[in-house]
Amino acid sequence: MTLVFKNSLTRLKEEFKPIEPGKVRMYTCGPTVYKQAHVGNFRAYMFEDLLRRYLKYKGYEVTQVMNLTDVDDKTIRDSQKQKIPLKQFTAPMIKEFFEDLDTLGIERAEEYPAATDHIPEMVALVKKLIDKGYAYEVDGNYYFKISAFSDYGKLGNIDMASLKPGARVAADEYEKDSVSDFALWKAWDEADGDVFWETDIGKGRPGWHIECSAMSMKYLGNHFDIHTGGEDNKFPHHENEIAQSEAATGEKFVNYWLHCGYLIAEGRKMSKSLGNEYRLRELLEQGYSGVAVRYMLISTHYRQQLDFTMDGLEAARNALERYNDFISNLAEFPGGDSDATAGGIIEKALTGFEESLDDDLNISGAMAAVFDFIRDINRLKADGKLSATERDKALETIRKFDTVLNFAHEAEDIDAEIEALIAERTEAKKNKDFARADKIRDDLTARGIILEDTPQGVRWKRKI
Ligand code: AMP
Ligand code: ZN
After folding, report:
1. Which of 6, 201, 208, 298 has its CA 20 to 30 Å from the CA of residue 262?
2. CB within 5 A of ion ligand 2: which residues?
3. 29 Cβ closer than 6 Å to some ligand 1 atom
4. pLDDT per position as a tens digit, 336-370
5. Minimal CA–CA distance to 261: which of 273, 271, 249, 269?
């Protein structure tokens, strides 16, 4: 079956063809850590989790990079206001972000580069743009000259006729109607306080857009497969990323651009600046589980607007109960006769699930296939028409679905599972099966679990 994505760049559904067969390199714009992430932000990270997990389900090896925007207009503004050094100001937000990812069962990306750790890469990129005639300086600020880049405006669907020649914008965020040369590097001024770097292009700090170009290309190469983000990232952020990257390298930057629609609350986009945000922690305090929030965030098609309501969370809770009861009751079912229809039910469910997700991650179709499957297998079970072998095949099927959905309670019991894998690895090493031992370590690393061999035995911790 062919995997198809709606590409924001061409506005068409296109067959997914990775640059390197069997491998996918993708970049995800991560959180701006000036305030705790809200569930709207997690809608974007949840869509990316679905994408990542489904690519893995299809057998691709995925390398995902998600940046941490720990220096930009907002982080500087708020850390200065609170008189806290920038790194100290962003650290608790970053820590909470990772905890929230775990609560929501979002799989870890392979890399989480922080912008403040990549200033030399950003400066090098600005210098390259200067050398190639795409950047110019005004009073220590460097701007990207968009008139020099003929492809500008393709992603954001910008009418370049409205462009005012010579207009410049220094702010990281701006609207479509103020399309103009944007800042790559901002010279230090008093409001920046102690936030600056002394570099070849002067004392200052990067603009937001150059951060993602520098970090994505460092970890994924000049040309990679997929770039994702929320709809609000499309313009100017992603438009500017394309301009900076392609102007610097002369190569195509990204093949597929995928953007998710907004999560809205009380009729408006949930946003840190509007203040209509719900935090995951508040929902947990109200007695909702991380997996209920996960269900609610994942179950609307990523390109559609998602209306956040408490009723929606209740519905998620009920559906999850059904899903998990199905698994536990099925596991306990001793098996009965067979009327030979189970195989067809399983086949139909697998086809329905995969055909739907292959079609631009149509989650509604996929979930319908899963819940039809639950209903049909339950019926066979109630009639005593499911053999022990068929029961095991049905369990295997729902567990396969769950590698993408991650709704099963057993998935929450991660600690016991990790301990068991560590014990298996120790045993494998004892038996000189180093290939198996290394594989276990690599699989755990991919899940963000780091093993340390200590004299007291093997310890594990989560990667931050
Ligand atoms: P920020 O921390 O504001 O840079 O946003 C991090 C990610 O969340 C970006 O991909 C945004 O596009 C996305 N995002 C922000 N608000 C929402 C929302 N209400 N619904 C969906 N995605 C959002
Ligand atoms: Zn970005």
Report:
1. 208
2. 29, 212
3. yes
4. 999 999 999 999 999 999 999 999 999 999 999 99
5. 269
